[in-house]
Amino acid sequence: MSKSWYKQELDEKRKILQAFWNQCMVTPDEKNITATTNFVISVHFPKDAQWEENVKSIMKKALMGQARTNEIRFDDFFNLFKDLPRIDIGRINVGANLGVTFPMPPEKENPTISSDDLSELRRYLQDTHMSAAVALGLPSGESVVPDFPENQSAFAFTLHSVGKVFTGMLIMELVRKGVITAGELDKPGVKLDEAITQKLPSAIRERLQQVTLHQLMTHTAGFGNYLDQYLSALAHEEKPKIESLKDFLPFFDQSTGYELCLMRVKDTDALSDLGLLRIEGRTPVILVKKGETVYVYGKNTAGKIGYTQLDADKFADITFPEVGRETKLDQDQKYAKVYDEIAAKGGCARYSNAGMVLLGLAIEHLCQKSYYDVLREYVVTPAQMECFSMSRPKENAQWNPDDPVILHMVGSSAGGSWTTAKDLAKFGQWIYECSKDPEMKGLLEKYGQEFYDAKLQTVSHSGGAGNPLSSAFLEVSLKTGAVVAVFSNDAMAPVLTEMVQRNIFHQEIDTALTSEVNAASGNISEPSSESKILSTLKVTSSVVPPTMAQDVAVLGDDEKTSKKQLCELKKTSDVQPIIPSEVP
Predict the structure, then answer these.
(1) Mean pLDDT, rounded, of the chain
(2) Sheet with 143-144, edge to edge strand ranges
(3) Rounded distance between C-alpha atoms, residue 108 and residue 104, angstroms
(4) Nearest CA to 357 among 471, 252, 232, 444?
(5) Using an 8 Å Cβ cutoff, are 187 and 212 in contact?
(6) Cβ(487)–Cβ(493) under 8 Å?
(7) Separation of alpha carbons 156 and 391, rounded Å
(8) Rounded to whole angstroms, how far apart are CA atoms 68 and 90?
């Protein structure tokens, strides 16, 4: 009898952690121990002060040589880390260059789902005590909704930021149907109804005249957030009344642009001492200050962008513009010029829920109908979705009882609508069918960077809120037609999605456990669309709602040219508890 998914997952975790113990703990590797400590604490939810102290304690003892003398034991180390999601332990594997690999069966060209697959899925939900709803889709158009009590598929959940896929697909479908032209997506100057425009702060009105719909679609227009303020308002006894997209405007963050500080890094050893590992010599980084924290964006050995966060006092000799100010580094005109060049090319990304609401308002102006009506006409109805609501359905809705605000959430073009796993899978199947049209495939490749991975040929997005008390995930393979739709009343939707992809469809959504590592260079031979190097340059996490794998521009050697698309806009989320929403 084959091992259960849970047992297999536990064995893989043990193999990686044993390798880390042998290579980094027994003979203390200070840099990897420090980086891994920071990483696991940052992604562990819910926050647990005692657990964090235990992690720091065992790592400190390892630095003192106590793993070598058996004063601390591997079993204690393993028991401390084993409940971390497989994805994150996989990043320890790659980040510490451990070289642990696991065989993957060939991808199923014609996906099928057996009764044994469903039995194993049920067993996994039982073993992990996961509160979730899952539905699967096949290229034939058949939806498979596992019928067992552990699968809460009869209930509607909130989509969170998976709703952004709906808005992006809507825009492209409007092009495909001839309602608007592709050229309009790249034309500077986003138009809204005059009554809406007059309600916007002047800085946002001015910025809208400069940016395109495409930039709004890909979070490169420079706008901020609204969700934090909206969720805060939902926590009050008197809830805000939301009847249309314009009702979200009072919650807008009014900042625009990207307040970045750019510097050349020559003393990479000094940065390594701060925990920024595997930065190539003389590689420029981008520094962003928010309060007393500095976010350091840099390129790792795989050529991908990631970040680490450090105390501002580490950079006492550097002058930073504060995030939230409208300055474009006016303290340094040379960098201001470079900044303008990067921003003009859309080379910087700033995850923006407000930008997505503005995109919805632009759709209303173009169609002279409400966003909700246009979405239903061009997406929801063609996808044959039976349950789709901008607010919580009165019957059969499910949410985390520990979340005081989610049941009051109203969806927008940025996300937050309510649907079932079965209907989300239908939406995924509709995307697959649309992608068979060469025109739609071309639109996805040109305009779908927020959720389309051209290399893997997948449409995917996650969402979550509440640090996170609930989560959602949609994964669609445009190669095979396999669809996975998952909701969870905790942070585990990305984890369950990955388990289904690997064990049923034999597809990887995260290569951290299976990529072959080139020992000579420390590079992953075929990295996925996100950075899988740990080194505290973390891009996403399955526990924390993944912050965007930023399309950050890195200055070239002449400090005048910029490189785009080093990371794709992938798998974003509503709330980023690690990186504040104001930080690009």
Answers:
(1) 75
(2) 143-144, 132-137, 483-488, 470-477, 458-465, 452-453
(3) 11
(4) 252
(5) yes
(6) yes
(7) 11
(8) 24
In sequence order, the 6+-apart residues with CB closer than 8 A to the CB of 371 are: 244, 245, 360, 361, 363, 364, 412, 413
Q: What tokens appear for 334 in the block?
A: 């040379």
Lookup: tokens for 68: 């070598």
CA atoms of 575 and 426, how far apart (whole Å): 26
Report the alpha-carbon angle 48-94-273, nearest 5.
Answer: 70
Q: Does domain 115-167+383-503 have CATH number 3.40.710.10?
A: yes
Q: Report residue 205: phi and psi, to 5°.
A: -60, -45
Q: Which residues pair with 461 in a beta bridge?
A: 474
First-to-last CA distance in the chain? Answer: 49
Q: Identify whether the C-beta of residue 467 lies closer than 8 Å to the C-beta of residue 476.
A: no
Q: Which of 346-360, 372-386, 462-476, 535-549 shows the lowest mean pLDDT across its residues? A: 535-549
Give the pairing type, strands 293-299 and 305-311.
Answer: antiparallel
Q: In the block, which residue shows the tokens 């539905």?
A: 135
Rounded Cα gap, residues 504 and 477, in angstroms: 13
- CA 431, 434, 435, 440 torsion-angle sign: negative
Kindly tell me the sign of the dihedral angle through the C-alpha atoms of 202, 204, 207, 213: negative
| Residue matched to tokens 């100010």 | 325
- Helix/strand/coil for 286: strand
Give 414-458 pLDDT, tens digit per residue: 999 999 999 999 999 999 999 999 999 999 999 998 999 988 899
Instruction: Give CA–CA dist 470/45, Å, rounded.
Output: 12
Whether a cis peptide bond, with omega within 30° of 0, leads into 240 is: no
State the Cα–Cα distance between residues 59 and 33, nearest whole angstrom: 7
Cα–Cα distance for residue pair 53/42, rounded to 1 Å: 13
Cβ proximity of 16 and 8 under 8 Å = no
Indicate the residue type of 263: M
Rounded Cα gap, residues 489 and 399, in angstroms: 6
Helix (H) or strand (E) holding 464: strand 458-465
Distance CA(146)–CA(133), nearest Å, equals 9
Q: What amino acid is encoded at 354 in this protein? A: A
Beta strand residue intervals within 482-550, DSSP E: 483-488
Mean pLDDT of 191-197: 95
Mean pLDDT of the region 233-255: 87
As given in the structure block, the two tokens for residue 466 are: 């509440």
> What is d(CA 364, CA 359) in angstroms, rounded to the nearest whole number?
9
> Pairing mode, if any, of strands 554-555 and 562-563?
antiparallel
What pLDDT digit, counting tens, does each position of 286-340 carry?
Answer: 555 555 665 555 444 344 444 555 555 555 544 444 433 333 333 334 334 443 4
Count other Cβ atoms within 10 Å, centred on residue 412: 27
CB 498 within 8 A of CB 87: yes
Apex CA 138: angle with CA 136 and CA 144, to 5°?
Answer: 40
The structural domains of the chain, with segments of one domain joined by +, span 5-95, 115-167+383-503
Alpha helix locations (H) across 235-383? Answer: 268-273, 333-344, 353-367, 371-375
